[in-house]
Write the structure tokens for this entry.
Amino acid sequence: MRTIEQTTGEILDLAAQHFKVPRASLSPQDDFFKKLGIDSLQALEMLTRLENHFGIELPDYEMQGVSDFRTLASRIQARL
Amino acid sequence: MNSFKGKSLSWDVREGVVEVELHRAPCNEIGTKMLADLEEFAKALETFSREASAVILHSTRPAGFCAGADLRELYQSAAPLEIAARVAGVREFLHRIHAVLNTLDDSPLTTIAAVQGVCFGGGFELALACDLIVADKMARFCFPELRLGLIPGFGGIPRLKRDLGNAIVRDLLLTGRSINAQKAAGVGLVSQVAGEGEALRVARATAAQVTKFDRGTSAAAKRFAKPIPHDELRREIDLFCELFTRPAVMEGLKKFVESTDALPYLP
């Protein structure tokens, strides 16, 4: 079982890789919409990559209002 | 017509397979232009059975297969009208798109949707009219219509009910959530999951297999396995038009058109 820190770290790794930003520039409290400048399609893509990576289902409505990596990690952790 | 190049789609017939490419920006939204090209395709489809065994529908738009009905066009054309004229316009559009999708559903050829990225609303309904759905692992399927105070109007519920169990039909319909390709395969919606960017290649391999069989036998098997739910399809149009008279629909469309949300298809 992953810890919340491990889950957060994996999300940050995925985001850095996918959006081609330095991993060191991302931190758990960042607002990923602002930090990564993502639009609705990219948000969906990120959701799919997270589901595929963690092998979970994450309904879109659980993502609503979530904008920082740490909260996102807690939503994912609840489904692992 | 062995090949066609329209503003929204084009097709070619090669080695017994009709490849239909959807290419309307931004993501193949189905409005009047796409509908006109789809009608051309439906007309031609009836002549393909002499030279082809399979059809592949795919998109060259990076965002996905099809984002559904053109809601901006719908809002802009309906907003200035009185309710009766709005409903009449919508009903005519629905009859035309249903005719296209029924022709596709009923075609003696084996039809394959090669799906990547977004496959929402009317786009999902287009894929559901095909016999097989091959999905890239980044594909997502969704019926977001309830957020607009509507139901899917291009045959979505009757075809979902025909193909899938009630639990997933209600889940997709009543929550409006999107599901990924793996989940879609698990519930029987998608027949094969391809790697990222590989849906068309997998669809071509599947089509090549289909062409090995006697066309008449394949058509008979399809007719037996895939009855078209005509009564429910007609009722769907009536229900959609009834719901379309409600003020909440125009408010929902306006909100969608003006939205800058990250996930605008959700309530």
Remarks:
- The interface with chain B takes residues 33, 38-41, 43-45, 47-49, 51-52, 57, 59-61, 63-64 of chain A (CB under 8 Å).
